[in-house]
Design a protein that fits this description.
221 residues; 3-stranded antiparallel β-sheet; single chain
């Protein structure tokens, strides 16, 4: 359906009416096929006969110039220019103005749609960014809680990131093996028995003699 939004007469405006396809089938058929529908004698034009009794005669409209409004390749409305009380022969300038005006309205509508999409996109991006920040904060809090719990329970932690190769050894890992904190470099080679057999011998002894202080190994792919 198409809505004629506003009429202006003697400086006063009035609301338009809604035109339904089911009520005006012939008109909609022609307006879909023609970019500009110029009717010099609208009350006797086959393309506008649907409006004669219900609209043209009561308002004394003799000529109509209709131009389709398109948005995203679809017709969404019509701009209608009318001549009352007498007939008018629409010339090239009239038709060109009608087409330009309807195109201008179509661009305004598309611009508004684009602004709406951009606002929705910004809102979604902000939501995702805030959600990511919250998840990172929760992850850091969980890691801090885990580290605190491991230290309190005197559990040594060996954390190896397989992707980056980074190894993280906590303080208890060092002290349970008889080292000062950070005395050895935090590398994968430091924590392998092939590279440090003496250390792992100490580790074995410590594990047996102190079962309450196990070693926790985390592997992340």
């Amino acid at each position: 359906m198409i809505e004629e939004v506003t009429f202006m007469r003697n400086g006063e405006s009035s609301e338009g009416v809604i035109l339904k396809r089911t009520d005006f089938p012939d008109y909609f058929k022609h307006i879909h096929e023609e970019r500009i529908l110029a009717s010099d004698d609208a009350q006797n034009d086959n393309r506008t006969l649907d409006f004669v009794e219900s609209y043209l005669k009561p308002l004394n409209v003799f000529s109509r110039l209709d131009s389709s409004i398109f948005s995203d390749g679809e017709m969404i409305g019509v701009v209608i220019f009318e001549q009352q009380n007498k007939s008018r022969k629409w010339d090239f300038l009239d038709k060109n103005f009608a087409a330009s005006f309807s195109d201008f309205i179509g661009r305004l509508i598309e611009s508004e749609k684009r602004h709406i999409y951009e606002r929705e996109l910004r809102h979604r991006i902000n939501y995702l960014e805030n959600d990511l920040k919250k998840k990172l904060f929760d992850l850091n809090e969980a890691k801090l809680s885990l580290d605190t719990a491991l230290e309190a329970a005197q559990v040594g932690k060996w954390d190896w990131n397989i992707v980056t190769g980074k190894v993280s050894l906590n303080k208890t890992w060092y002290t349970k093996l008889g080292y000062q904190n950070q005395e050895l470099p935090q590398t994968f080679e430091t924590s392998t028995p092939q590279q440090s057999p003496a250390m792992y011998a100490t580790s074995t002894t410590s594990t047996v003699s102190a079962p309450s202080a196990p070693q926790l190994h985390q592997h992340r792919a």
